[in-house]
Amino acid sequence: MLPTWLTKEYIQTHLRAYCKDDQLRVLKLWAKPATEKGGNYVGVMTRIYVDYEDGNGTVQNKSYILKQTCPEDATQAKLFQEYDVYNREMDMYELVMPKMAELLREIGITEKLTADAVVVDRERTILILEDLATLRYVNADRVKQLDLAHTKMTIELLARFHAAALVLNQRYPEVLRTNYSSHFFSRGKKGYKEIFTGLFRAFIRYVNTQPSLRDRYSAKLEHVAANVMEYAARSVDVGEKDLQTLIHGDCWTTNVMYQYDDRGNPVTVLPIDFQFSTWTSPVVDLHYLFSTSLREDVKEKETELVQHHYYALKQNLDKFSYKGVFPSLLEYQLQFESRRFMTVLIANLFQPIMVYEGTEEPEFVNLYQNTPEGVRFQDSMYACEKAKRIVEHILPVLDAKGLLDPQ
Question: What is the reported pLDDT for 249?
Fold first, then answer.
């Protein structure tokens, strides 16, 4: 199960450097898969277990998360290479996140910002990260989604992340100069066009099975399908007056982890998985989070949640004595609203996947390809009552805002 190169000698060398202990000696090394099939399409995650003796003679039992690229013969391999997600994430863990954590400590924010990188091996394109599960971090339930307490805590996390990135860019602009311009909807890249187009066809197929939805929305959705990537790209475009920073880019329940107190209340939150971190408007993270991860009663507070992020971001920047241009709350709300088309995609296409509880084969290609297996999986996404409620609720809202009309 372990790669042939991942020997006791290999991990011992890196643990000595990470622990700053030249006497550390690895005694035993083994592994288990870290995610179930379909749990991670971007790469392969393995939990590795290490027994070692430190320089004081104390035996330690530790686990770590090994992140590798997806196999070369996997359908999605070329796609993720096209978007350079692996180099980006290595940069994030090795260069960006430690700098951001250092900056946040300047203003008294000392809690962890993400998992420590024990190994960043660019030759093998792998990461070995500390295992947050051993620190009692867990994911919230992706099907039940986030209540208000989880949501506000996650928004405050994003505000710290966005503020630190703004200051990082002012002080160390070279760190963010490359590799943060591409995103899911990048013009000139082909990979995600096939995926989003396939997902949108599946969405229209479901709408056409519902007479009340078909008669009102089908023709409009056909027009959107023909322009979906361009409309989506405009949601990530930024102008001179837009607030711009580094965003997480894929912020939903699977990519944030929480610690809880004895009564089950969340007390700390960390982000993980930075393959799609992008330089754009911070409200893109808000749209993604709101459209994928919030309970229906929480999403109804959307305007107040944008306000919550705005003031948390402003407070952090004030602590930094940030001198850059910062929008008014009205301008910020308008910047959020101008990217509303993201909701068309994320709520209708991604959320049914994210709350999926069906039994069809969760292979990556089945998300979007028009094969018998793919169609079965796609149709089953809209079979659950929760997905049906999402569509029935969001379509009238999007139509009323004009987002299903030609843009």
Answer: 95
Which pTM does this prediction carry?
0.92
Report d(CA 233, CA 342) in Å as an integer. Answer: 9
Query: What residues contact 191, with CB distance under 8 A and at least 6 apart?
Result: 78, 79, 80, 82, 83
Pairing of strands 117-121, 126-130: antiparallel
Name the DSSP letter for residue 210.
Answer: S
- Asked whether the beta carbons of 15 and 118 are under 8 A apart, the reply is yes
Are 250 and 276 contacting, i.e. CB atoms less than 8 angstroms apart? yes
Instruction: List, in order, residues 6 or more apart from 313 with CB less than 8 Å away.
Output: 159, 162, 163, 282
- What value does the mean pLDDT take over residues 62-76? 87
d(CA 386, CA 404) in angstroms, rounded, equals 22
How far apart (Å, rounded) are the C-alpha atoms in residues 142 and 258? 13
From residue 127, alpha-carbon distances to 114, 119, 359 in Å are 14, 6, 31
Chain centroid offset of residue 25 CA: 36
CA–CA gap between residue 78 and residue 59 (Å, rounded): 42
Residues counted in the chain: 407
